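Fresh eyes needed here. I'd like your take on this protein's tokenised backbone:
***
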Amino acid sequence: MLFDAAIACRTFAANEPPIEFKGRTPRSPGEKLLDALRDLASGKAEIRAHVEKAWASITFAGTKHTIDLVFEGAEAVEAGECFIAFLPTHEFAIPGQLVADAAVTEVEHRAAPPFMAVRCEILLLEEG
């Protein structure tokens, strides 16, 4: 058994400090970007693919992200249309990163049943 059930189910008094879990892997900027995209899509998108590639110029370094999202159902497609409209000007808040470019590069749209597939490309640059 990986852990003792009695310990896992223990309740804590209100005056006890919260437990800190050590050894947890911090979330990468790419994972934080995906969270931000889900939020921008009002939680109505499913991320089907994410490709992250290192990117650098003479003065900047970062990563280029290609993300495929799917919106299924009328409400989701409406959220997808808003996603497309707002992505290029959205102010992302990813610590240590700057979104240098965000663009929708491909869209597939069907009316019945309501469906939209969106591919976007985002360039994240390391700050500092």
The domain at 30-126 is CATH 3.30.2000.30 (STM4215-like).
